[in-house]
## 1
Amino acid sequence: MDYIIEMLDITKEFPGIVANDGVTLQVKKGEIHALLGENGAGKSTLMNVLFGLYQPEKGVIKIRGKEVKIDGPRTANALGIGMVHQHFMLVDTFTVLQNIVLGMETVSGGLLQMEEAREKVDALSEKYGLKVDPDALVSDITVGMQQRVEILKMLYRNNDILIFDEPTAVLTPQEIEELMHTMRGLAAEGKSIIFITHKLNEIMEAADRCTVLRRGKLIGVVDVASATKESLSEMMVGRKVDLEIELQPQAAGEPVLTVENLCVNSHRQGHTKAVVKDVSFQVHRGEIVCIAGIDGNGQTELVHALTGLIHPDSGKVALNGKDITRQSVRYRNTNGLAHIPEDRHKHGLVLDYTLGENLILQRYFTDEFQSHGFLRRDNIIAYANRLIEEFDIRSGQGAVTPARSMSGGNQQKAIVAREIDRDPDLLVAVQPTRGLDVGAIEYIHKKLVEQRDSGKAVLLVSLELDEVMNLSDRILVIYEGSIVADLNPEEITVQELGLYMAGSAPGEAGREVH
Amino acid sequence: MKRPDKLKETILSFLPSILAIVVGLLFGFVILLISNPGQALGGFSTIITGAFRDMRSIGRVMYFATPIVLTGLSVGFAFKTGLFNIGTPGQFIVGAFGAVLIGIKFPQLGSVHWIVALLVSIVFGALWALLPGILKAFANVHEVISSIMMNYIGMYLVNYLVQYNIYDRLRNQSMPVAKSAIIPRMGLDKIFPKSNVNAGFFVAILAVIVIYIILNKTTFGYELKAVGFNRHASKYAGINERRSIVLSMVIAGALAGLGGGLLHLAGTGKYIEVVDVLAAEGFTGIPVALLGMSNPIGILFSGLFIGFLTVGGDYLQLYDYVPEVIDIIVASIIYFSAFALIIRDVIQRRRLRLGGEKEQ
């Protein structure tokens, strides 16, 4: 059997931990090979070894049957290995074309020869159906197009081994569809693709074979055709995972959150633009209401207006019947509102504080944690230890671990623990499972449903269609700042929801609001 | 098992500072070698030992350290709360003016005269930092820009006010303060005879302790640091982040102002001179804070260390060295202290990265 890449028995250690423990990865020419594992399973380490960023302690790398030593990205590039990083490596102030040729410029007499490059880029984008506007500034184009630029960058360098590091995390459903199509096209052209992900749907859809890692060890290699989502997730997590949630029907109670005619304008660079337009809805006790929409349709501003981070321009927000439109964040925090923020590093955590200090972020001033203005260290530690135990937050040094050094999944768990433990009447959860692996997703979903079942209200904002369909009692679709539909997840299909989110209402199914 | 770990951690965190001092001293030695090779060894040992030759010298170290510990605390406190207070010279001189004004105008205050004068220096210094704080909090004007401008406004304003209120025309400086406004020696003159050390040193230590407690033990410090580390998350947590920024700046200003008061009420012939020069003690606070890693205790020691160099350097003149050489040596140590900060960051980032991977 001819493998284009063989990484045999790779071991990479860091002080105190074996990140890759005798892992073997073999990729055939022209296949899409998925690399599956939870956060911290060693996927990134393995790819960094392949890309020359880390040197393994043990193991052999063979490319096209020849043993090679890869000592840096430059060598990797020369071997035809290219990578689309999870966070794109593009120069915002350059045009698409300039970004593609960067580092590979055609020069004649010290002058750039862009025309030649343009022809080559045009040809490539034609051939693979990667539509881009070569003259647009990268800062002006959508995330999906930025990704296409990254792919073109690899193709421009004649790479034929392409690594995609969690490429779908930032895309809309339609863009994901397109990407899958592109990847299959590339494979058909004989390119070999390594596809790093923890989303099982995408593996089932696009990959030929799949290598599963868990805690640094190789668990197995499977043919996707003969695998099921369940078998894959069991291999990845090491136990059965159940992502299907059966919401027990229960009657919605009193309204907890009432939003009336809410409007938010953004004032940027002198322009005033309405980003939330006349939004009205209610969330009741015992229900999960989901706001579904494509990123950037006003969700962020809506949530910020609800949680007090910005003040709305008009309209009313009421919590438990009391008007809180003009109340401070502190008032809302202490009167039954909790908020799992969209950006855990910007809003959710003070990364330079310890885990313990972060867990008391909204409660440090309560008598439990201070007396006469002095922090009660022992209580803080004890409280942190309880949450660590209860919510299974994993960290190196327990309560005194710097938040910065924790893995993304555990940072998120810490935030979820903090918000839920405050026993809120209304939990606003914004993309609570973004970037997490199935194990953590399952856990967080369970916690949200527990909130609902115990008679609390949950407002979920999500971009993941599966999450939306699975978890909600009601779905509100937001499009360009307006709520365009109020749907019952039982009565619609994912496709219909996708259409609503894209702004085109499918005449049937669901009912229009107002 | 926690304790030794913590101790090791503390020692480790000061390692870059110590490294900086050693390299800085070696560099100083090289300068001595260049400017006068024959005397270099003797001169160098004088720098190291000069401050220990008698009790008077030790007292002088404490005297020199007092104001720069305060300005160092001012800068360090601001750093810890996410602000770069480069306005210490202005706050220092405005605070000094407040103290001297009270010291001259209100001799009837009697035994509490000096205390009142010091309190006024605190208030004046705080007021001088208030505007940069407000601009930062409400208009997002960077505090470096606004506080630099406040330095010059403060300097010229004080020059003007001194000339119109408390002017000694012959010497072009402020008049001497009343006896009752001079900070008492509290027996320090017995232990360290003929030196200028006074109770101001105790005030400095008190300030160090208070700031240490505020930063590390109180909810107030928790808020201030949270805002400094992450303004957005603090807002999310319901902390009034604007108020915190203003208060951080005001406290920093109060510390620098107190430094000015302590120096000018020491009764050592230090007056406010009417010259167009920013107070050196103000800017010296920046290296003191850097060398002390913005840690209040560290700042106390780095302030003492710079005082120690100053005293040792004075004796260097016995060895045919011009006084400027000692300034060069101090400056080189200051340069290396900036490096120390970079070294620490590199070490920390490495450790965090390894720690992060350990998680996985």
## 2
Amino acid sequence: MKELEKTKRISIASVLTILVVIIALLSYKRPKHNYTVNTRDALEKITDSDYFLSLNEIDNPDYVLIDVRNQYEYEKGHLENAINIYASEILNDDNSDVFKDLKEQNKTVLLYGEKPDEVLAPYMLLYQLGYDNIKILGIEINYDQNTLITKNVVVEKSAPDINAFIKESIKKAAAKPKPIRIKKIPKKVIPVKKKKKVMPEGGC
Amino acid sequence: MINRKLAKVLAFRYTLLAVILILLAGGLVLLPKYEKHEGINSEELLSNAISPERYISTDELADKIVSQDPSFLLIDIRDEKAFKNNSLPGAINIPLKKLLDEDSTTYLDQDEFDVILFSNTNFQADQAWILCSRLGYKNHRVLKGGLNEWFNTIINPPKPTENMPASAFELYSFRKAASMYFGVAYPEAIKKQPVVKKVIPKKVIPVKKKKKKMPEGGC
């Protein structure tokens, strides 16, 4: 009888354990998007390599333009042949498929927005997820009476020299006003004819 | 009729079961390690990166510095040459390339102080912020506009024209005061020294009055 009891307990315990393991394995969801690049490599990429393009370089059949602004801005005006994918929606299923397809077709994706700052977040995210075929188009967008104006912009221009400005201002403030030389105007001499007093003739 | 072999195996059934379970446990432990999957998940990173909450304006920062708020660290992520040339008062230099070094983590991965990252504009500071955010550092912020904006608003604030609301004038006086704190000198602020006039004692010169002599004789 003891043998049977032992069997029962052990078999129940083992069946339960196996069940738990199976359930855990099934319910373990892989995160949809996995990073393929760790932070060190990402840092190297952004500090070392050149991932900016300018407007005159976009004429290439291998380049696909993506506008990361929202739909309203996109419809106001966008670059030719640009697709609109709003920055906060790049991880949606449809958009992920678009990126996967583009990667498979070996096309280079150029992201642009109103300013390069807008594009930075989607760029870094996509790069860290493994899409290394992405570059940033360094442009700024303005509208002039509903027509789109794009211009190339250099990112991280050096700051105006603050210390030089401060020293300049101290110099200016300490400078005494220079005395202005008053030019001596030469006195004009106007000859005045003296009228001779004619003494009345005759007696006094 | 039990097979003899089976009977033999069944004799070891408990050890067999134990071995199977240990193997399964080992399998669980060695699940594929996502060693590249460090940090917070990508959806969260995206929403953090897009949200403008991380920005701090130049006026706020000037206020913090002037009022000597002790709870923040300023970190300049430009390279060393630019840092030596000029930077904000009290800033520490961690060039972007060294962001993930061990020395830098003592400044970046701590809970005591708020970290404010800045660079020339906010582009590189944003890059640093996104990487730090992926690693889970929570209390980081970015100076909006960077040093360029700092110059244009605090050091050299634009004078409000007459058609602007009173708040613009208040903002201007705040910014002007902040700029004076940071070293900018204005000509009107210098007190004019009173010019000491030397009092020249009046010299008294006696003037002899010439008496007019009447012509003698007749007219």
## 3
Amino acid sequence: MFVKVLYFGRLKEIAGSSEESVELRDGERIEDLFARCSSSRPELRKFRSSLVAARNREFAAWDTELSGGDEVGFLPPVSGG
Amino acid sequence: MTFPSPQDRIELTREIIPNATVAREVRADEDGAVATFDGCVRNHSHGRSTLYLEYEAYESMALAKMQEIAEHVHNSFAINRVAIVHRLGRLEIGETSVFIAVSAAHRAAAFDACRYAIDNLKKTVPIWKKEFFADGAVWADGEVPPLPAAAAETPAAKPASN
């Protein structure tokens, strides 16, 4: 199954793109997705502790199981206003 | 009464925010107060002179979170209408980045709802600010949004619920 991954703010600059499609095995969770995304970009791992994940536009825990077609955003600390 | 009010204005824009129009449009004849918050671009940050800012958002989620804030203020305060408008893209010194307006019969509810809306926008709405200085640019320090209780980390021994 494939999920859509979105990067924002400094993560987008580190990832080198704002969006990608990633293939996962059934039962994989948001933390597994992040491990896959950061395996080729070790720099991303440094930000793991300050990130919040969103699944389908709602904040989600790292152990949330993913389904095909999900949209997952990795969100750095927010600074609107 | 239906919440949120169809007259609420929840918006992301790349244009200059028409503050006076937004404030005027939340007022109705039954209101005795309009409280507004104008968040604007400051010319300094952490002791450095700021040249300009750039804002970006996870737009679909940001709008959903702004809508949730509007729903919350309707449910929590005796207000009439609320407008929450956030600008994106490049902003110059002095320009408005966020404008919030709340109308109510009486001032206390309008002030309280306006304060709640900006405080929660800064904590929970996925928008990011990059600050540009003469000698470089940085992403602003931000706030880590709290997870809703239902999405809080489950203990490792417990299977995930969904």
